[in-house]
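Hey L., structure's done. Input below.
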Amino acid sequence: MSCLRDYPFHIFYGPGDDRLHAFYLPALERSVAYDRSAGFFSSSALAIAAAGIARLIRNGGRMRLLVGAELQPADVEAIVAGADLATVVRARLLARLTTPEDELMHDRLAALAWMVHEGLLEIRVVLPCDAHGRPLPAEQAAEYFHAKEGVFTDADGHRIAFSGSVNESAQGWQHNYEQFAVYFSWDATRPYLEQVVGRFERLWTNAEPGWISLSLPEAVRAALLRYRPAGPPVRDPLERTAAVAEPKVVYVVERRDDRAALVASFLRDAPLLIGADGLGVATAAIEPWPHQLRVSRALSERFPQRFLLADEVGLGKTIEVGLALRQLVLDRRVQRALLLVPHSVIRQWQEELFEKFCLDVPRYEDGKFRTVRGAAWEPRTANPFASEPLLLVSSQLAKRRDRFEDLLAAGPWDLVVVDEAHHARRHGFERGLDQPNRLLALLRALSERTRGLWLLSATPMQLHPMELWDLLVLLGLGGTWGASPRWFLRFYEELRRGPAEIDWSVVLPLVREEVRVQQIDPVFAREAEAKLGFVRWEEVRRILTGESERKPSHLDESQRQWLFAGIRRHTPLRRLMFRHTRALLRRYAERGLLEARIPTRKPRPVWIEMTSAERSLYERIEEYISAFYGRYEAERPGLGFVMAIYRRRLTSSFFAVRCSLERRLQFLRRQRPDLGLVDEDLEDEDLEQDASETLEDLGESLAQAYLDEIRYVEEFVRELAQLGEDSKFACLLEWLRELFGRHETVAVFTQYTDTMDYLRDRLVAVYGRKVACYSGRGGERWQDGRWVPVTKEEIKNAFREGREVSILLCTDAASEGLNLQTCGALVNYDLPWNPMRVEQRIGRFDRIGQRYSTVDILNFFYADSIEAEIYRRLSDRINWFETVVGTLQPILSQVASSIQHVALQPRQRRDQVLRDELAEIEQRLTAHEEALLDLDAELYDEAFLTTVGSPVSLVDLERIVPALPGLAERFRPHPDIPRAWLVSWQDRLEAVTFDRDVFDRHSDTVRFLTYGDPFLAELLDRASGEPVEGAGRIVRLEDIGPPPRYGYYRIDGERAVWIRSVRELERCLDGDPAEGTAEGFAAAEEDFKSRLDAERGRFLENEQRQRTLFDTQLKERARQVLVEAALVEIALSRRLASTDHGYPLTFGQNAVRSLARHGYPFAPLLRLVDRDGTLATSSDDPRWEEMSRLSDEQLKHRFRSLRREAEELVQRIASTVTAGEA
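Output:
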C-alpha cells in the first residue's frame, strides 16, 4: 500500500475535476482510516459519502461517518413536549432511507452496508441545538451542514483532510456540484487539517458545544443492512472499467537533469529502492554485533516466516527484532504491527525502539496512546487496537477477558512480536490435559490473524519440552511435528539413546519431513563429505532424504555417526529458533570472528546474620504468612499467592515488607480496593497464572479472615517501624568500601521500588550526590536536598563516566534500557526466587564489549533463611551464576516453586518439605545430562559475517543533507555539541545529528536525523522539488506496488546501468553525459522488472512456505484425530457384548472409514484428508494401550472431544483448500 505522501494531490478540487479518480480513489487506496461528515441522512447523501470506499475495504480500513437528521418543526415540538429524542430521530432517518434511485446508488449503499456488517463502519447522528439545548428543525439547521469534511489516514500516520460544499440531492448525486480545499499533515497547511480533525473528534465524542451526538438507531442500522452484498465490493460503481483491468507492472518514468534535486530525490526514495535491504541497519542508531546482524537479516529476508529468538540474556534479542522491524517498516512490507511485552518493560521497549531504531511506536496505556516523548491522545476508533498501525501493548492487558476479543478483531496484522513468550504456558499437560493460560490462548488465536510472528524468550523451556512445543507450533512446525507433541517428544527421547540404540524407524520419517522443508544443510554436507568421502556420504545423504530405503544398520560405524549427526542437525528447532550463548560467542572469538571482550564472572554469596530482634520478627512474620496462606487457599485455590508475594518481599528488606503490610492494612480496613498490591508484585503471577483474574469477585466470604488478619498486620507494622539496626544495610556499606578499591562504579539491584527508596535515602547520607537511581519512575538524582527526576541520558552519562555518580540503584524491570557494560561490580541486594531472573540482571553487565575482563557479583542472603539454604545446598552441584547454565533451565526454573512451597509451609512441616524438595532437585540434576532437549546452538558458518549493501549511509546523509540547496542556509553547527547541527525550520529550532555516538550521549536533547524520522522526510521533500522532464541521462522508474519500489538508472546509449547507491549516482552525474536512446530506456525497464520480480518472488516463496507448513500441520492433525476416534470406537466395541452397536471390531482401514457413518464432521474430514482411504488403525499404535485403560465413560468423553476438534478442523481446512483441490 502506497502512502498518502506518494500521490500528487492538488490543494483544491472543483466541478471541473474528476474528483472520484483524481482524489477519492487515490486517497482511499492509500488509507487505513477514513473519517467523513455528511449532510442530512438520506440515500443520496450516503451514496456520495461512500465514494471510492471499495478501495478502503480492499485495505481492511475503517470508516467513521457523521450524519444529520432532517427534523421537521413538528418533530421539535414533540421533543419539547416530552417525546423521546432517539425515537423521533429514528423515525425521521427511516423515512429518508429510501429505495435507491438506480443500481449505481444501490451499489454504493451496499458497500456501506458491508462495512457496517463487518464492524468496519460506525455511524453517528449529530444535531445542532439552540441556546436552550433543543434540536433545530431542518430549515434552521441546513447551514450547519453546508460544509462537508473528511480525513484520510494512511498506515504511516500521514493525513490529508478536505473541507468544502457538496450538493447531495438525489437527482445530482452522480455528478454532484462539489468543491473543496485539501490540507496535508506534512506541510504548512497542517494547522487547517488539525482544525478539521479536532472538529470531527468533538462532534463524534459529543464534546462540541451546541451539538448533540447520538448512536445510529438499531432499526436504521438494520434497514441499511438490507443492502449488504454477499461479499466485499471490489470497485466503485462509477469507477472506470480500465482502472480495474488485470493488474500489471506500471512504471512512472522521470528523466532528471537537476543535480541537487535528483540527489535529494534519491535520498528520499532510498527506503523503497530495489536492493535497499541493508538501509535499515546502515542508518540505525546502533552498530550491531555480528550475531545480531545475522539474526536481524534472517528475520527481514525471510519475512513473513516465523521465528523464536532465544539468545541468552544480554545478547541482544531486542536489538535483533528492532533492526529487522526497522527495515520492514521502512520498506513497507510491514504496515501493521503489534508488539506484546510485559507491562514492566513496555516503556523500555518504547525507548529502545525510538532511540536505537528511530521507530516512534505508541504504547497503549490507561485508555490512551502515548509516545516516547509524552504526547497522549484518545483512540481514534471504537476498538483502540485498530486505531494505530504500529502499537505496543502490555501482555497483561491484551490477555484480559474484556480485551481479548478486541485485540483479535483489530487484526489481521502484518507482524506480531511477543516478548518473554515463555509466560504463555499450559497447565495440566503432565496429566494429558490442554489447559492454556490466557496468554497462550491469546497467542493461539493471534497466530491465525497475523502473517509474521516473532517470539522472544531466553528461557523458552521452563519446566518441560512440552512448553517449547507449544511455542514452536505457533511458528509452523509442519506435518507430523506440529500435529501433536507426541512425536516431537518421542524424537528427542530417541536422540537421547544415541546412535547405537536409537529407533531409526521413528526418527527418520520425521527428519525426512524436515529435510523436504529446509533441504540438507550445505555446511553440514561439506563437513560430512570431507570426512566420509563422496560415495560414503552419498549413501548417508540418500537415507536422510528418503531417496534410499537402505537400513542404517547396513552402514559402517562412522557413517552411522554422521547419520545421527544429520538427524540432530535437521530438526524444526534449528529452522525456527535462533539461539546464541556466551560460550558460543567465545568460540567465535577464538576463531577470530568476533573482536570484542567477553568478560568472565566472579560471583560470591554473602551470608548475612540477622540481629536477634530481626530474627524474631522475621520468624513471626513467616508464621503469619504461612497461616493465612493456608486459610486463603482453603477458601479459594490460588488466592494464597498474595501471601507468597509478602514472603518474597521479606527476603528483600524489612522496609519492603513493612510498605507491603501498610498497604495491606489499608485494604483490610477497606481504604483501598487492590489488596495492597502494586504492579511489580503481580508481573509473573498475572502472566503465567492469570492472578489478576483470581482477585475478581472476592465478595464477602473472606470478611472474618480479614478481621482476624488486621490484628497481626497492625502489630507487625508497628514493630517494623521501631526496628533498630539493619544488618543487611550495614553489610552493604562494608562491601561498597571494598568494591570501590577496585572499581569506579557499583550497581545495586533489587526487585522492589520500596527497597530501592529505602537504600537511596540511607546511602545519600554517606555518599551524597554520588548516588542515583533508576526505576519505573525513570532516573532520579539527589539535588538541593531532594530527589529530582532526570533523563535517562543524564543517568547513563553520569554513571558511565563515574565522576558524578558512582552508585546506581536499580529495580529489575527499569534497568532494561540501561547500558551497564562500563560497570564491573554488581550487588544483588535481594535475589529473585527464580535463578533465571538473577541471570537476567547479570546479563545487563556480562555483555560483549564489557570494560572489565572480570565482573564482580555479590549475592546477599539472610543466613539460615529458606532461600539461603536451598542456594547453599545446591551450590556444590552448580556454579551459581559463574556461567549461564542454559542446559539446566528446566531444573533451575523449579527452584522458585520449591522455595515458595517450603516457605509457605507451617514451621513443623518445613524442614521435611525442604529435604523433599532438595532431594527432588538433586535427582533432576543427577539426570540432567539425559534431558530431552539441549537448546544450546551449534557454531554457525563464517558466512554470518557477510554484509548487505545500503544505497545510503549515515556518512552520506551527514555529507549531503546540510549542503543541499534550500537546506544549507537552515543548517548551522551546534555551538556546544560537536557533530551536531541546529536546523531552523517552520519557526522552530531543531538540534540534530547524524552521528551515533553523539546521539547516544545526548538522546534527550538531540534528534537523530535518519530514516524513520518524519523530519528528514520533510527536509528531503523540500530539497527534491518537482521532476524535471527532458532527455536527461538519469531515469527514475517507479512500480506503484504495493509496496512501491523505485529504481534509478543511467542511460548510456543502448545500455542501462543500475545505480545502487547515492555515491554511484554522484559519480554518474559528475561523468561525461551520454545520449540516451529508446533501447536504453527499454533496457532500464527490463532490468527493473527483473529485479522487482525477483524480490517479490522471494517474498511470495516465503509466504507460501509458511502457509504450507501450517496446512500440513493442520491436515496431519486431522488424520491423527480420525485415527484416534477410530481407536476409541474399537475400544468401546470390545466392552460391549452385543455386535449391534455399529462400532468397528477390527483394526485397519475400515475402522477409520466407518467414521463416515456419523456424517458431519467425520465424513467431510475424511474427504478432505483421506481421499485415498489409506488411514488405518493398528494395535501397535501407542495410543491403543492408553485407550485400553480408559473406562467406558472416559472413552465416550474422549470421543466427544475428538468430535468437537473435528468440527473445528473441517472449517479450518476447508477455508484453506482451493476449489480445484476440493
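The first strand starts at residue 12 and ends at 13. The first helix runs from residue 19 to 28.

-- N.
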